[in-house]
Amino acid sequence: MSHSIEVRALRKFYGDKLVIDDLSFVVEPGTVTGFLGPNGSGKSTTMRLIVGLDHPSSGTALIGGVEYTQLHRPLLTVGTLLDSEAVHPGRSAYNHLLYLAQTQRIPSSRVTEVLELVGLLDVSGERTGSFSLGMRKRLGIAAALLGDPSVLILDEPINGLDPDGIYWMRNLMKHLAREGRTVFVSSHLMGEMARTADHLVVIDHGRLIAECTPDELIARSSRASVLVSSSDSARLATVIQATGGTADALDHDRLTVRDLSAHRVGELAQQQNIAIYQLTPQEASLEEAFMTLTHLDDVEHDRPLVTHSRGQATP
Ligand SMILES: Nc1ncnc2c1ncn2[C@@H]1O[C@H](COP(=O)(O)OP(=O)(O)OP(=O)(O)O)[C@@H](O)[C@H]1O
After folding, report:
1. Gene3D superfamilies annotated for this entry (predicted)?
2. What is the overall mean pLDDT for the chain?
3. Which residue's CA is minimally distant from atom 18 of ligand 1?
4. Is residue 250 part of a domain?
5. Closest atom of ligand 1 to CA, residue 206
6. Which atom belonging to ligand 1 lies closest to the Cα atom of 15?
7. What is the whole-number distance in angstroms between the Cα of residue 40 and the centre of ligand 1?
8. Is the pLDDT score of 312 beyond 50?
9. Is residue 49 part of a domain?
10. Are residues 112 and 257 in the same domain?
11. 3-state SS, one letter per residue, for the chain
12. Which atom of ligand 1 is nearest to the CA of 45?
């Protein structure tokens, strides 16, 4: 059975500092949900609250309707890869996983299975202290998958991986979601999230600012633009500005135009007898959309971009 993650009116104070501020969102099974936010916005804290490593000041974080600490054998429901997870450097990969398996009465045959799944079977007898960052991440994923859980909570799993490792992790997360699992993953790498995530939860200063698909976030961005190369950039820029657009020179014959469509720019150039060499709509990247969203003022943050009905689940 698959479980969703449901965060409701979550607040967390550290001393008198409010770090998580009335945060609510839902993560559904069968999807990779990216958890985005600037440094210090509260992603790791939220994940720690979900898995009971810290207590909320108020509000709830439920997995399949119950708190993590109420789960009887948690590794069978939730697999985690959190930054803080430490592995004893003197222990072999196999023994590390075997120890974890024994704490939850998971058969040792599963240890071999997950080692094979993450590509560490050949080095499973080696001490983890000699492992590269990529190998340690794979070992962390193996530990997360040990109990064949329906929910995976992964904090920055891609950070520090080489291109092969990123490709492997991306496909693994998609595969796990296709199997019907709930995959909740934080990342700083917007390009990766655009390729991997079906849904996004975006926070800033501990508050929800968007719960939507990557495409919806990009559509919200005001950074969409048109790249124009022409025979007279300076004159075209003047006309564009007089018509309500903005035009920034990229170099002597190219402009980046905002707030006017490519169609309109073409018409204006024709009216002015300016030759157009190139006219290309530029879709904002997820990174640009994210920058736009996280630089909105507080008033606009009071109206988060929630385009999915799961954001309105019952309290
Ligand atoms: N145990 C703690 N005691 C006091 N403050 C804390 C504690 N843990 C986190 N914080 C503060 O809470 C805020 C959110 O931190 P958190 O690590 O959750 O953010 P993050 O979004 O995961 O950041 P990053 O992307 O840089 O990892 C930060 O201001 C951090 O300093």
Report:
1. P-loop containing nucleotide triphosphate hydrolases
2. 88
3. 42
4. yes
5. 14
6. 4
7. 5
8. no
9. yes
10. no
11. CCCCEEEEEEEEEECCEEEEEEEEEEECCCCEEEEECCCCCCHHHHHHHHCCCCCCCEEEEEECCECHHHCCCHHHCEEEECCCCCCCCCCEHHHHHHHHHHHCCCCHHHHHHHHHHCCCHHHCCCEHHHCCHHHHHHHHHHHHHCCCCCEEEEECCCCCCCHHHHHHHHHHHHHHHHCCCEEEEECCCHHHHHHHCCEEEEEECCEEEEEECHHHHHHHCCCCEEEEEECCHHHHHHHHHHCCCEEEEEECCEEEEECCCHHHHHHHHHHCCCCEEEEEEECCCHHHHHHHHHCCCHHHHCCCEECCHHHHCCC
12. 18
pLDDT digits 0-9 by tens, 264-287: 999 999 999 999 999 998 877 777
Query: Ligand 1: distance of its center to the CA of 232 in Å?
Result: 51
Query: Residues of the chain with pLDDT > 70: what percent?
Result: 91
CATH code of the domain containing 52: 3.40.50.300
Distances from the Cα of 16 to the Cα of 13, 40, 168, angstroms: 6, 16, 42
Same domain flag for 275 and 307: no
- Report the predicted TM-score, pTM, of the whole model to 2 decimal places: 0.81
Q: Do 250 and 161 fall into the same domain?
A: no
The CATH number of whichever domain residue 272 belongs to comes to 3.30.70
Q: In which domain, by residue range, is 238 found?
A: 225-282
- Does one domain contain both 110 and 231? no
Please indicate whether residue 39, judged by its CB atom, sits closer than 6 Å to ligand 1: yes
